[in-house]
Please model this.
Amino acid sequence: MKKLGVAVIGTGFWGKNHARVYRELPSTELIAICDVDAKRAKNIAEQFGAKMYTNSARMLKNKDIEAVSICTWSTMLAKEALRALRAGKHVLVEKPMATNTRQAKRLIETAEENGLHLTVGFLMRFIPGLQHIREAIEKRKIGDLVCVTAKRVGQWPERIGDIGVVKDTAIHDIDVMRYISNEDPISVYAKAGSMKHAKFEDYAQIMLKYEDVKSAFIESNWLTPYKNRTLTVTGSEAIMRLDYITQDLWIESAKESFQPRFPFQEPLKLELQHFAECVTEKKKPLIAGNDGLKALRIAEAALRSSAKNRMVNLKS
Model:
């Protein structure tokens, strides 16, 4: 079976992982990597046996490249993704996908016009425990969904320098809320600010309201001295708790408490394998460009809510 020719644009902390996984997957061939830092590009290319570029436009002329991961700084994601789509390449763009929803819409339109796959890097969806939670909600195994609480806190990642915690970190949980509930919130209220980082917000508390009784709370910061990545789902008949770091899942009801066992799997590997399969087998992706657009829209509304100190309606 022919391998999918892939490339990675942006080989910093996360882009390097994309390159590694593509090199490891039996279904993909890492053709090239691109980074504006020539020294880093050379090191990564040599490490993973790929061709090195410092100019993405030049790299995208390579006809062996069929699909591209975009892992640049957040403010450059949309520009590089648009360039790749116009060059006829399928694209996986890391979150938050674009600087704003206008850019995100342009990416979606370009992908549709050219018949190309466009997916967004929300890799939480590939954690087996989260997929189990979604199924439990959908089949009402925990009764009616009442509330979901997400905590994603830790120290500031030095790799981040062009966006705040809402679009970098909380956006993962915004997408998770949409994924497990299979529903969009109707309003958002948020408090965000900066305690240690003057340029962007480094903490946020976000409340999402839905049509019925359920709600969701998201806590994100770059202040806490250690990492905590957890999700608690409260139903009328049971509570489910997921630790994203260990991938452990606990379920508690009135009758029993138990811990289903799932083999630990690297979410990024599952995500990139799925991306490759969608391209080669023309399958519908688990995460489409529109999912990225909706998550970004909610993140922007949360920032507006905090700035104006009021609830923002999402239905309009």
